[in-house]
C-alpha cells in the first residue's frame, strides 16, 4: 500500500518535509 503513502505526501506538503509516511485509513 505504498500508493497511500505517496498520496499522503502529496496531500500534505508539510508531512513530506517532515518525512512522516503514514498509511491512510480512508
Write a brief caption for the model.
The protein is mainly α and 26 residues long.
Count of helical stretches: 2
Mean pLDDT: 55
Strand content: under 5%
Quantity of strands, as a count: 0
Structural class: mainly alpha
Helix content: 55-70%
Query: Main beta sheet: strand number and arrangement?
Result: none
Residue windows where pLDDT falls under 50 for at least 5 positions: none
- Please tell me what the overall shape is: elongated
**How much is the radius of gyration in Å?**
8 Å
- Give the distance, in angstroms, between the N- and C-terminal Cα atoms: 12 Å
Write the H/E string, N to C: HH
List its traits.
mainly alpha
Architecture overview:
Helices cover 62% and strands 0% of the residues. By secondary structure, the chain is mainly α. The longest helix is centred in the N-terminal third of the chain and has 10 residues, at 2-11. The relative contact order is 0.29.
Topology:
Elements: H1 2-11, H2 13-18
